[in-house]
Design goal:
The protein is built from 5 helices and 4 strands, in the order ααβββααβα. The chain is α+β, with helices and mostly antiparallel strands. The strands form 2 sheets. Strands 1-4 form a two-stranded antiparallel sheet. It has a two-stranded antiparallel ribbon with strand order 2-3. It is elongated. The mean pLDDT is about 80.
């Protein structure tokens, strides 16, 4: 009888609960497959590199190009002196501006697909999340 209590105490499922390790892994596999298929159907494009503005009476200069120039100047300062505050400021702020520029101009499209395929993908993804949540819940 004492061995059974010890077995029950050490037999734990996902997250230390007796919810079921098999259910957790089935949910994980379903979520990974559904997530992969969903992300595979999404098309992302960016227009940051084509974003332009006029400078000095209409000279057309790419915003990315100007930001990249300041980024490279900052990197140059850092290579000359690793403690250069102006170098770190130029590099980090230029990198942040490039990142913001790319992320703010992203266009996300869902590729053309049938409703049946979309429902299958979403059921796999959400059903897998539900199975994982169920396996982490303590069963009494």
């Amino acid at each position: 009888m004492d061995d059974w209590k010890t077995y029950k105490r050490y037999k734990r499922g996902a997250g230390g609960t007796p919810g079921g390790l098999g259910t957790f892994f089935l949910g994980l596999i379903m979520t990974l497959i559904g997530g992969y298929l969903l992300l595979n159907q999404i098309q992302v494009s960016s227009g940051f590199f084509s974003w332009r503005y006029g400078l000095f009476g209409g000279v057309d200069i790419s915003a990315f190009g100007v930001t990249l120039i300041f980024f490279l100047i900052g990197v140059g300062f850092i290579f000359v002196n690793g403690r250069s505050k102006i170098g770190w400021l130029l590099t980090s702020s230029s990198f942040l501006l490039i990142l913001i520029g790319v992320l703010s101009t992203l266009r996300v499209y869902l590729r053309t697909t049938s409703l049946y395929i979309l429902l299958a993908i979403l059921i796999l993804f959400v059903g897998g999340l539900g199975l994982m949540a169920r396996s982490l819940r303590a069963v009494e």
